[in-house]
Write a structure and sequence with these properties.
- It contains eight helices and 13 strands.
- By secondary structure, the chain is an alpha+beta fold.
- Among the domains are: 115 residues, Rossmann fold (3-Layer(aba) Sandwich), CATH 3.40.50.20; 61 residues, ATP-grasp fold, A domain (Dna Ligase, domain 1, 2-Layer Sandwich).
Length: 312
């Protein structure tokens, strides 16, 4: 099979997903790497380039999304799909979508400028403030009370807006869960950006955690993804959702992701072939009916039926 991996400049030095591309090459498949900032893409021939699937590792507002959406528009499978990526990459959209579908996520505010944090009710403190387009746990702050706002009120808005979430008291570490399709691979305790160091370790992947992870994938339409959750006194709370994460610490991660990409492309190919067979059958049936009607008219059978009807 033939794949196109779209890798944007921000992820050029990251192992993921290039290790997956290398694995597919070792299995005898063809993999092209497209860097949108370095190479032009001929959209006129997109449908004839022979790719079985596009795989994207990109930022939500990057040029790779345009190429991915163009491929989707003409029926080429994509992993992940563009709608799912956009839903999770803008954290404000992800929060609203998660709440609307009943996922357990802390109460969340959208904040266009740091000075607007003063409008959040005091009863919602402590607050966790983070960029709405953030990643890799960067620029995350905890505000224990409105008196902590001074540091933010002096800030000028940058390239991002902010989210302010009610802090959920928890066990002091994040739980990262990794998924491809319907396979949930691992629950790993990792350091939270708001707490001290914690020993990274596997924790039991309970039925509750497994169901929560699969619910997220189903609701957002994700193929390859990860979620960050914390355990609170009221159950698990979802803090973040990531499309195509690093899968750090997951046993056989490269093999598992590569297998999923391959199976997803083959499944899409089978679905395309099935659609083509159905369309061919419809056309043949339509042609047969047209031919039958023409034959009846030519033999006079149609006129005989009309005469019989008028006699009655």
């Amino acid at each position: 099979m033939r794949f196109c991996f779209i890798v944007e400049e921000q992820y050029r030095q990251d192992p993921m997903p290039m290790v997956v591309a290398d694995q597919l090459l070792q299995w005898g498949h063809t993999v092209d790497v497209l860097e949108p900032q370095e190479t032009v893409t001929c959209l006129s021939t997109l449908g004839t380039q022979g790719y079985d699937a596009y795989v994207l590792k990109a930022v939500a507002d990057g040029p790779g999304m345009s190429i991915l959406e163009a491929a989707e528009a003409i029926g080429i499978p994509t992993i992940n799909n563009s709608r799912a990526i956009r839903l999770v990459r803008d954290k404000a959209v992800a929060a609203a979508f998660a709440h609307a579908h009943g996922l357990p996520m802390p109460k969340t505010y959208f904040v266009a400028h740091p000075r607007l944090l003063a409008q959040i009710p005091q009863e919602d403190y402590p607050l966790v403030v983070k960029p709405s387009n953030g990643s890799s746990c960067r620029d995350i702050y905890r505000l224990n009370s409105p008196s902590d706002l001074e540091i933010f009120q002096a800030m000028e808005p940058g390239e991002s807006f902010f989210l302010a979430q009610r802090y959920a008291e928890n066990t002091g570490f994040d739980i990262k869960i990794y998924v491809t399709g319907r396979e949930v691979y691992a629950a790993i305790a990792k350091k939270s950006p708001l707490h001290t160091e914690v020993q990274e370790k596997f924790i039991p992947l309970t039925p509750t955690l497994r169901k929560l992870a699969l619910d997220v994938g189903k609701i957002f339409g994700l193929d390859i993804y990860g979620i960050d959750v914390v355990e609170t006194a009221h159950g698990y709370a979802v803090l973040d959702i990531n499309d195509f994460p690093s899968f750090g610490g997951v046993p056989r991660a490269v093999m598992r992701i590569s297998e999923y990409v391959l199976h997803a492309a083959k499944r899409a190919e089978m679905q395309r072939e099935a659609r083509q067979r159905r369309n061919q059958l419809r056309r043949k049936t339509s042609q047969d009916m047209t031919l039958l009607s023409s034959t009846l008219v030519q033999t006079g059978f149609h006129s005989d039926l009309q005469t019989l009807g008028s006699t009655r």
